[in-house]
Structure formats: C-alpha cells, structure tokens
Amino acid sequence: MATETKGAESAGMPQLEFSTFPNQIFWLVVALIVIYFILSRVVIPRISAVLAERSGAITNDLAAAEDLKQKAVEAEQAYNQALADARAEAQKISAETRAEIQKDLDKAIAKADAEIAAKAAESEAAITEIRAGATDSIKQVAKDTAKELVAALGGKADAKSVTAAINARMKG
Amino acid sequence: MAETKQTGSTKGIGIALFAIAAILFVIGLVGTQDPGLQIHPMDQFEIKPQFGGGEIGLFTITNSTIWTFLCIAAIFALMVLGTRGRAIIPSRVQSIAEMIYGFVHKMVEDVAGKDALVFFPYIFTVFLFILFTNFLGLIPTAFTPTAQIAVTAVLAMAVFLTVTIVGFVKNGAGFLSLFWVSSAPLPLRPVLALIEVISYFVRPVSHSIRLAGNVMAGHAVLKVFAGFAGALGVFAVFPVLGVVAIYALEVLVSAIQAYVFTILTCVYLKDALHPHH
C-alpha cells in the first residue's frame, strides 16, 4: 500500500485487526441475547396473540354475517308468506261479500218482479174492466143514436135489428 | 493486499479491492497536483474506544458497541413500543412489526418446515439484528457492525454449530446421509460425499463473508465517491449523483443481505431436520 493511512498499517482492512475481536464478539453476544429475550418474551407472544385474535375476530364476523344473512332470508320468506296470506284472505272476504250482496240483490229483484207482476195483473184487470165498460157505453150510445136517427128520418126503429147492425159494425 | 486476498474471493471483496485500486489510481493521477485529496475508504471500519483510553479491552465501549445498542433500541422501538396497542386493527407501526414477523415466520415455515418453528425466535433475532444494523449503518457517520468479519463470523458459526448439533441430535448418525447422495450412481457417491463434506464446512465461511463483504464494499464505494466529490469542485455533482445512486442500491442490499443470511439459515436448518435428499 502506497498511502500513509492508518488502514495501511493493518494491511488495508481494519476488520482484520484481531485485537478488537474479543471485544466485538463479547458485545455482539450480549446484544443477541438481549434481542433474543426482547423477542421471545415480549414481541413474539404479543404479535402472535394479536394475529390469532384478529383471525378469530374475522372468523367470528364472517360467521355472524352468514347468520344475519340467513336471518334476512328467513325474514323475507316470512314477509312474503304473510303477504300471500293477506292477499288470499282479502280475496276470500271479497268473494264472500260479493256472494252475500248477490243473494240480497236476487232476493230484492225477485220481490220487485213479483210486485211488478201483481201490479201488472191488477192493472190488466182494471183495463179490461174499463174496456168492457167503454164498449157497453159505446153500444148503448150507438143504439140510442141509431134509434134517434132512424126516428128522425121517419122510420120506425126496430130495436132488434138496430142492435144486430151495431153489433156487426162494432166487430169491424 | 496478500492478506485481503486470503479472506475470500466473493464479489464483495472484489469490489472492495477494485475500490482501493481506484483510489490509488486517482491519488496517483490527481495527488501530485492536489495533495489535499486523501480518500480513506477503509477508515470507517476502524474500531475506536469511545470514552477515553487507547486500549480495547473486553468490555470497552467502542463505536461498534454504541451502534449495536442503537440497533437494540431501534428493534425495541419498532417491535415493542410499536405493538404496545395490541390493536386488532393495527396502527401503521404495528402493521410494519407484524409484517416483519409474518415475513420471517412464513419463511421459516415454508423453507425449513413446521418443526423448525421452535427455532423461529432465534432466526427472528438474527434477521432483525442484521436488518437493523445494516439500515442504521447507512446513516452518515454511522458505524456498521455487520461490515466486521468478527461479527458475521460469530453469526455464521452460531448457525453452523446449531445446525450441526441439531442434525446429530435429531437424526443421530443418520445425519451423515446428508453427504451420501443416494440418488447418484454408486461409483460417484464417494466423490460427491467428499464434495458435500467440503461444501458443508465452507458454509460458515461463505455465509459470513457474503454479508460482511457486501456491506463493506457498499460503504467503501460510497466513501470513495464522496472523496471524489471533495476534490472535484464544481464537477462534484457527478460523484454526488453517484453517491445517491449507490446509496439507493445499498438500501436494497441491506434488506437483501439480511434476507439472504436468514433464508440460508433456514435452508441449513432444513438439512439438519430432514437430511435425506
């Protein structure tokens, strides 16, 4: 070595200064023992506990999530069931009500029909009676008028033939 | 220079040698005109006592000691203070701590197997020590213990001894089947066994020098570029850009080397627990 450095005196490498070796090895061993105890007594139990706790928490949370999902599915099913039940019930009620109303309605219609028929028959009778009355009156008036006419023309009215003639006319 | 060559032939050392050669070249080129240019890229690796006294005894507090304990403080701040909330939904700091934990835990489990998890605290210790030492070493003027062969050699030897002892305790003589490649043709097996044995004993060497070499090379190159910047005046902008780029690379290398050291530890551990090919 051409330089006048201190390193040159120990052949360029202070690492090979053997007089420092016992000192270095002593402190290295001390340091390694200290680090070993820090790690094995404090750090490793602590971190492994944290990691175990974390994976436990994750597993639990996943299980809880699965559970809740199951519950949600069940709740949805129950809701749908309730909805279907309510719908069926409503249908039943409305059908019943409709039938009842129909029954009442039929009854009322029948009653009304009967009344109408009775009234119609009654009216029919009245009309028949009136018509009969009217025909008789007309016949009488026609006979009287015919007799008077015949008398006025100077003839002698034959009651029997006048009636027969009017009856024939009335028949049309 | 002869001594440095003996310590290994990894890429890291190569880069360091190249860096030193580059400095010498630049000093030779510029030094005559500008005697002020002095780049000492290796000075940063010197161990110095911090509280007086020139001698380094066994218990002397050195710059290396201080940064080692800052590393402990940083690990404590992130891993202990950062997780004190124990929150199920973590804070940002807590999630970083959990991420590092999960990263190393998964690596041990995937690479070395479930039965290697008893070694998880040990591997986690090694990973965090290297990671934080590397990162703290990137603070300007910091000292990097992982650039010291003494440190990485102890780490690697600890792994080597652990793996060897665990291998024999768990498998007895069956551990030796690691060297006996039963899937190879019979005549080749003794040769392969020899190679396997050699590679087994080279493991701690490569394991330690890979880490120290990478970290040292990066720091030395940074220092060289910084030294150029000091000498070039206005043109210092180029070495400064170089420093920025290499610094970014070093951040990456810091994490990758911690990862590499740890995953190799796991691989070796797998050999010890399941030696059958």
What report would you give on this structure?
The complex is a heterodimer of chains A (172) and B (277). With 172 residues, chain A is an all-alpha fold. Chain A has a domain at 23-135. Helices cover 87% and strands 0% of the residues of chain A. In chain A, helix 2 (21-152) packs antiparallel against helix 3 (159-171). With 277 residues, chain B is an all-alpha fold. Chain B has one domain (11-20, 63-273). Chain B is built from eight helices and no strands. In chain B, helix 4 (92-112) packs across helix 8, helix 6 (149-171) packs antiparallel against helix 7 and helix 6 (149-171) packs parallel to helix 8 (237-273). The chains are: A mainly alpha (172), B mainly alpha (277). At the A-B interface, helix 2 of A face helix 1, helix 2, helix 3, helix 4 and helix 5 of B.
